[in-house]
């Protein structure tokens, strides 16, 4: 996806540098460049599943604690 946006950006940038353009088409291409840049920056700044304290707490509460309690319930009485 990022590569597609990068290619589109370069294509529009090359078309904008063409000296045989009128002002309106140049403005349209500049606006298109800004749109592609915005899309690229938005896509590039997305972070999936950021490591947050709430996620770590939920992981501990739902996975690690039950395993710990199972260990205590089954193995600790045999050791005593």
Helix content: over 70%
Radius of gyration: 28 Å
What is the count of distinct domains?
A: 2
Q: Give me the count of strands.
A: 0
Q: Can you describe this structure?
A:
It is a single chain. About 80% of the residues lie in helices and about 0% in strands. The longest helix is centred in the C-terminal third of the chain and has 27 residues, at about 55-80. The model has no long low-confidence stretch (mean pLDDT about 75). It is built from 3 helices and no strands. The chain folds into 2 domains: about 1-45; about 50-80. The chain has helices at about 1-15, 25-45, 55-80. With about 80 residues, the chain is an all-alpha fold.
Short characterization:
With 80 residues, this protein is an all-alpha fold. The protein has three helices and no strands. It has two domains: 1-46; 51-80.
Architecture blueprint of SSEs:
Elements lengths: L1 H15 L6 H22 L8 H27 L1
